[in-house]
Amino acid sequence: MFEAVELGRELDKADFKAAEPALRTRLLQAQWALQREGVPLVIILAGAEAAGRAKVADRLDKWLDTRGMTTAAFWDETDEERQRPAHWRFWRRLPGRGEIALFFDGWYRRPLQGGTLGELEGADLERALHRNADLERTLAAEGTLVVKFWLHLTAEQQSRRLAKRRKKEQKASQAARRARRHAATALEAEPEAHYAALRETAEQTIRATDTGESPWYLIEAGDGRHRDLTLGQTLAAAMESTIEARAEQGAAGPAPVPHPAPEPAGKAPSLLDSVDLGERLAEADYREQLKARQRELHELAWAAWDAGRSLVAVFEGWDAAGKGSAIRRVIAAMDARLHRVISVAAPTDEEAAHHHLWRFWRQIPRDGYATLYDRSWYGRVLVERVEGFAAEADWRRAYAEINRFEEQLVEHGTVVAKFWLHISDEEQLRRFREREETPWKQHKITDEDWRNRERRDDYRRAVEEMVARTSTREAPWTLIPAEDKKVARIRVLDTLIQALKQALAD
C-alpha cells in the first residue's frame, strides 16, 4: 500500500513559493463555501512519528481562516473521559455547521497504538475500526465532511528526523523539553522500534476504514514542502467536490428513500394493544410498596456509584402519561449528588448546528452517576418524524444510529433503561380536561398537547416502529401500563432495581 508514497518526491523552495498563493486562495474560497452551505469539516492527521503533523497543522492555521476552527491532540485521557464511552471525547469536540475541527489521530489514536503495541488484537481491533467507520458514516449522513490524511515516512526517513529532533532537544533547556513533550506512550517513546508494527497496523486500519464517505489520503512526508502542498491541494479538492455534490443534489432534489412496509389490513392487534391497562393498586399497598422500593433503589444507587456503574434512564410516553411523576419517585430514592434529570426540548441553535445525537453524547453521565431523560434522542423518530421536522431519510437512518449509540453506552458498562408509559385515548382526554380545570395544573396543558392528540394515530404508528426497531438485547424497551399512575411508578422502580441488581452481579 505505502509503496506509492515512497518515491522520494521533493519540491524546491522557489516552486513552493510560486504555488502557495494560488493554493491559499483556493482553500479560503472552499472554506467560505462550506461555511455558506453549513458543512462541518473534520480533518484527521495521522501518520508515523516525526512525519510533521504539527507542522502541517501550523501551515493550515496560516492558510485557512482560523475563526470557527479548532485543533485537538487527544493525547492523555482525563479521568472525565475515561469514565465515559471512548467516543465521548470526540463527539463533544465535533464542529458545528460551517466550522472546522483538526484532530491529531482523532478516533484512530487508540486502534493505531493498541494494534501496534499488541494491546488490541484480532476481533477487538476489528471492532474498534468498525466502530470508527460507523461514526464516519453517521457524520457523513448528516453532512459532515471527514477528510483523513496518513503522513508517511520510510523507516530511514523517520530515523533521520528523530536523530535531528534528539539533537535539538539536547540543546534545549529542561523546562522547554518538558513543555514540548506530553506523557508519551511506548510507541511515541520508541517509534523506531515499533515502525514495522505501526506500518502493518496502519495498513489494516486504512483498508478497513477507507470508504466513499470518508476516504484516506496517503501523503508522502519525506519532504516538508511537498507534503504540505500536496496535502493542501488534496484538502481543497475534497472541499470543492463536496460543494459541487451538494449543488447537484440540490438541483436534483432529495435522494429517494425506501417506502415503508404496507400496514396490515383490518384491525390487527398491535404492540401497544398488548399492554394491560386494567391493573390497579390500592393506596395503602402503593404506599407500602413505594417505601420498600425506594429504600432498595437508594442502596443500589450507592452500590452502583461504588462499583463505577452509571445509569441512563429514558422516559418516553403519551402526553399526560405521568413521566414527570414517575421520575420524581425515582430521584426521591437517590441521593441528590448522584443523579441529574434532563428535560429535553427543541434543540438550541448550537445543538441544531450539530448531528442530532451530539447534545446527548455531551450529557452522558460519568461512571457511578445516573442521568434521567424526560424525553430523549427518540424525538428524532417520534415528534420530528410525525411533525415533519426531520426528512424521512433522516429519521429512518436514526434507528441504526440510536442503536449504535446505546450499544456503546452498554459496552462501557452503563445500565440503560428505556420506558414507554402507555395510557388509553380516553384516559389521556380525562387527564387533559382535569389539567385545564385545576388551577395548579393548568401550566401542564398547552395548545401543542391538543395538537399532538389530534395526531395520536400517527404517533402510535411511530411508537410501534420505534419499539420494534430499537428494543435490543443490550437496551430493551419496557412498556409501562400507566392508566393507574401508582402501578406505573412501582413498575418503573422494579425495572430499575432489577437492572441495577443484574449489572452489579455481572
Automatic annotation (TrEMBL):
It comes from the Bacteria. InterPro entries: P-loop_NTPase (IPR027417), PolyP_AMP_Tfrase (IPR022489), PPK2-related (IPR022488). One of its GO terms (molecular function) is polyphosphate:AMP phosphotransferase activity. Gene3D superfamilies: P-loop containing nucleotide triphosphate hydrolases (3.40.50.300). Residues 161-191, 246-271 are annotated as: Disordered. Residues 11-242, 282-503 form the Polyphosphate kinase-2-related domain. Keywords: Transferase. GO terms for biological process: polyphosphate metabolic process. It holds the Pfam family PPK2. The keyword Magnesium does not apply. This is Polyphosphate:AMP phosphotransferase.
